[in-house]
Amino acid sequence: MNLRxxxxxxxxxxxxxxxxxxxxxxxxxxxxxxYAISIPPYTPTxxxxxxxEGVKSFFAxxxxxxxxxxxxxxxxxxxxxxxxQIAAISTIITLIVGYPIxxxxxxxxxxxxxxLMMLVILPFWTSFLIRIYSWIGIxxxxxxxxxxxxxxxxxxxxxxxxxxxxxxxxxIVYAYLPFMILPIYAxxxxxxxSLIEAAEDLGCSRASAFWLITLPLxxxxxxxxxxxxxxxxxxxxxxPSILGGSSTLMIGKVLFEEFFSNRDWPVASAVAVVLLxxxxxxxxxxxxxxxxxxxxxx
Amino acid sequence: xxxxxxTMAAAVLVASVAGAEEVHVYNWSDYIDEELLTKxxxxxxxxxIYDVFDSNEILETKMLAxxxxxxxxxxxxxxxxxxxxxxxxxxLDKAQLPNLANMWDVIQERTAKYDPDNExxxxxxxxxxxxxxxVGKVKEVLGEDAPVNSLALLFDxxxxxxxxxxxxxxxxxxxxxxxxxxxYIGEDPDAQDIETIAKAEPVLTAIAPFVLKFHSSEYINAxxxxxxxxxxxxxxxxxxxxxxxxxxxxGVEIEYHIPKEGALMWFDQMAIPVDAPNPAAAHKFLxxxxxxxxxxxxxxxxxxxxxxxxxxxxxxxxxxxxxAIYPDAETTANLYTTSPYxxxxxxxxxxxxxxxxxxx
Lengths: 298, 360
What we know:
The complex is a heterodimer of chains A (298) and B (360). Chain A is built from 14 helices and 2 strands; from the N terminus they run H-E-E-H-H-H-H-H-H-H-H-H-H-H-H-H. With 298 residues, chain A is mainly alpha-helical. The longest helix of chain A is centred in the first third of the chain and has 34 residues, at 74-107. Chain B has 18 helices and 9 strands. In chain B, strands 4, 5, 6, 7, 8 and 9 form a 6-stranded mixed beta sheet that branches. At the A-B interface, helix 4 and helix 13 of A face helix 3, strand 6 and helix 18 of B.
């Protein structure tokens, strides 16, 4: 019996150890190393054959130089700030677009719901990369959108959307929309319809019933959806590099540059460690929210 | 598009000779006649797995990480030099490469700058970095006397501001753009000291706002489709764009110009990683590529010059006879080469490049 308990409790911790803690320690270790022209391109590497002396000299060679380097150059904090901004704005837009869709799905009759659910999940059947690439065809100067707008006579010269931050927002909102819709839908679906009826019986208009009942009760879903969009959007690399322009500054791109153009794995690792520290704040808030909700349910 | 087609072709190849001996080749995108891949498999019975990249940085990262799984890779000279220094490659076994006799001494002398005695590599292609233009659109914007064969087209903000209406792409490679900017202001393009390199920054910053995109492979299609009117890119890529536009018959006319101020001459070298799983097959592939007819077929397809003297009699007239590909003596005298930056300077160069591109 005890063994079973230990196993149940131990499994998630083992999971965290193998898939989070160990990789993190490796990244941290590289962040404390120095650049070198060698394979792998940093020093020191742990030489176990030298025994205890090897371990000691290994630890002696680690330092925090790369972190002070990050602090000394404005590029890095500007990139972090700009990523935070892009992630926050796209989260808000995704919420504004996603909420009505989730609401509509929850209002639909029972026989329609599985189909609607299916339609939300359907894009995942195509590769993420291809879906983002297809936006090049839509947004480019000679693309569908510009052709349509010109054909309709709304504009005379094509709008430059591709390779700008606008295209990055479009890409992020598009790619992460299902992650917003699904938790909100899950919250709205559970909503007890009789509460709305009671509110309306007591003289509430439909709009105020929505503000007073539906919206507060769907709050956990909204919060979950926002985190599911915000956290991956912050470190996003693929969307800004495919749709964004050269002036799009995001930490994912900076990380790529450090790793590939400078071949400076130690600094790249330091950037990644700081990114993780920035993400820990929303992740803890998210955990708190989940916990509170669980307690409320009990 | 081309890459997708290539992947599919590779998939078919994989299916047809499953179970055989394998060789993994990692080459630049749009850089080979795919028929050569099939021919190699037919001749040797070795299954060829062909993979592509579009920047030296990606390749170098894989090389320095080790265990890339590739048997043959194709870095550019200056990158090759640093990777040799890091111990990424094995010395070639010249006994297994009888076709080395076909190589062109003129090019070998130049590549020895990066790989002394050519111990680690053979030349695959060489070319120049220059200006690709959409003739009609550039004339429309800048008039008949547009300086299409001068770096002023790219580095004079007045020209670039006008050209930004029809779209300009530039390579996303500081090692190409900084030497060109230095050449434009009359400095040594191969400068290794930070003070001189820094002089390129204001030149590049002044024109960066007018550049639609810094990218190292998209310009082939963008130029051919008429989406952009100027590209600062690699000779053969621009000539491929010229041919694609001609085939599509879409009214787009592309020309390649070597800037009269001088252009970067670069060498893409085939080398065998030190931990290649199948070095014997890698040598067979190198020897296959050095075959005069095969090297000619590759050049006829990609419009780059090769370092294979014996292949020249098999080259099409529009390749060997085109001074944009095999420049005449006068132009060649004007071409320059560059050396790799040391790590500290390299970091400054990348930082400068980020500043130019993002303004931060």
